[in-house]
Write a structure and sequence with these properties.
two-stranded antiparallel ribbon, 2 strands, about 100 residues, mainly alpha
């Protein structure tokens, strides 16, 4: 394999691994450790982490803590669509 191809493969792999929303300790899953970290970030005990901002409002709030808590219980994290959250079961998107 050419060095350039290997470099591109490495970048794709790193980007894929880093893209799990709510995974704050980079272990490729959202679990109780991530819940503890998001609670610490929400209380300003740890610095802001964009992976903890689940609802996309540029802040870590109780809503983000709740969404990560839900994920630790096996519920899916809703998809973020143009800075709005839409439930994974479908439905409509509203600003309200």
């Amino acid at each position: 394999m050419k060095p350039v191809s290997l470099w591109i493969l490495l970048l794709i792999t790193v980007n894929a691994l880093a893209s799990i929303r709510g995974d704050l300790n980079s272990d490729q899953k959202v679990d109780i450790a991530d819940l503890v970290r998001v609670q610490q970030i929400e209380r300003s005990e740890l610095p802001f982490d964009s992976n903890a901002d689940i609802d996309g409002d540029q802040a870590v709030t109780p809503a983000d803590v709740w969404l990560i808590q839900e994920a630790t219980l096996g519920r899916p994290i809703p998809e973020l669509v143009d800075s709005k959250i839409i439930d994974t079961s479908g439905g409509s998107l509203s600003d309200g």
